Amino acid sequence: MMAFEERIYLVGATGNIGKPLVQKLLVNPKVALTLYTRKTSKVQEIFGAEHPEGKVTIVEGDYDNQKPFADSIAGHRRLFLLAQPPNFTDYQTIPRRFAETAYGAGVEQIVIISSTGAPLPWRVNLYGMASRQFEEAVLNIPNRKALVTLRPGFFMTNQLWGDLFTIKGANKIVDMREEDQTRPWISPKDIGELAANVLQDPIEKHGDAVYELVGDPRTPLEQAESLSRVLGKTITYEKLDEEQTYQMFTQQAGMSHLTAILRMQLTELSRHQKSTIGLSVLLGRDPQTLEQWIEENKAAFL
């Protein structure tokens, strides 16, 4: 068995953020990983089943029964925590239980995924409130160790479930944004790789840092232009009014009233004009642009 210098525990590392995170950590011969998942088969499907002995450990568990996590966290110095509870009311309790257990077992650094909604004014909407409560729940743990908070903006992958259908069906994207209103796009690849960098840096380097992650703010017209260039056909932008947007979310996408209103509010509240200062430093490269992401995922839109 190889001798590893660092053992990193990952909760929520099988999605769009987790895949680039784990892939970057896997190439470090000094790091061993423990992945907490509902299904072992899912981890093996994404990352393969053949790794050096001791390199990857898989623990099956979930949010409700965290005993498998509690039984396996000892011996790890770092924890990556991406919690997506089913209800907004759980954004305090579920992450805090993971974090309290981890710190109590000797974990010295936790990296959490929050959102750009966390610093919004108090109770301005449910999403911002949940993000803030999530951060505060972990931040306020007595005698805790380091806590690094990542606050990503609007995931570029969201285009695959929202814009995809109107692009394929009508060669257009639709939204309620003004033509010159930016959206704070960020590539999940950038989020995952930045998290991997933090988890491999000296713990004291980042301390209790908070990093906003906005990679490439773009207006809907700029998004349509990028789609047109990459796909080789004209994609237009259609601005919807509030009633049309609400109907689209509830009747076509099947969202609840609260979720639909929340999405509409976020459209107005997300007005980042510039990419995050220092993001290229944290990544060690330039952040991925919206057009680069579209190029990588071109096949999905054709």
UniProtKB/TrEMBL annotation:
Pfam family, one: NAD_binding_10
Protein name, per record: NAD(P)-binding domain-containing protein
The organism's place on the tree of life at top rank: Eukaryota
Chain ranges of the NAD(P)-binding domain: 12-202
InterPro entries, per database record: Ergot_Alk_Oxidoreductase, NAD(P)-bd_dom, NAD(P)-bd_dom_sf
Coiled-coil region: none
Lineage: Eukaryota, Fungi, Fungi incertae sedis, Mucoromycota, Mucoromycotina
